[in-house]
Amino acid sequence: MSKLFKAVVTENKRLIKDHYLLTLSPLKKIKKNRPGNFFMISVESGLDPLLKRPFSLHRSTKNGFQILYRVVGKGTTILSNKTPGDILDVIGPLGNTFPVNNKHRNILVAGGLGIAPIFGLADSIVNSPGLEQPLLFYGARTGKEILCKKNLADISIRPVIATDDGTAGKKGNIVKVLEKFLKSGSINVNEYSIYACGPKPMLKALSALTNKLGIKGYAALEQSMACGIGTCLGCVVHTTRGLKCVCKEGPVFPLNEIVW
Known about the structure:
By secondary structure, the chain is of the alpha/beta class. It is 20% helix and 33% strand. It contains six helices and 16 strands. The strands form three sheets. The chain has a seven-stranded antiparallel sheet. Strands 11-10-9-8-12-13-16 form a seven-stranded mixed sheet, with helices on both faces. It has a two-stranded antiparallel ribbon with strand order 14-15.
């Protein structure tokens, strides 16, 4: 089954400031997508901009899927102006998925826009028979940037929140908040697995924490890429197993394999 397809925009909703939720409906049957996967999307039919943009799968819908994105440059500015009925060229789903451990309790950690794939993972776990409700630790710069609050409540997820300015939840670093929880003595860390997405400094700190406590952890990396299929080598990262392409061998990697 070809991974190249066209999709119609059914909604492109502005959530806050420069954050949007894009809902797409493929015009043909596509491969089933799973949390951790991503899509390469052409924001314009012409040659400017030339390259497709990578976007994490946020959530599957009845007739397609959703992308949660932030406007950061020319490409995403063009995307933010798309309206229902517009047709986009898409490649996907691409990449690997979060390897959820069915025997462990799952801790999810999101930083800023990292909630995009983490919400989809939470939704998947909640709807998987036999899996316990995951714990979600969610950090952002300010309370205004805490996204998906209603949708999280709809799936009975009440996140532990930390913000840099203290305008929502605890004031400070979400990894520090998680560390305090893990070191509280009330839990057995060997019963937990951690899955995360967020800015590099957060993931680096989380990697150090999981290594110190001996907890299995995985991270979906956010990386610029041009092709999405491992040809251009523009998204290479250093790992303990050598250089790896985020698009082809990721975007999900064990935290203890990433060389920061």
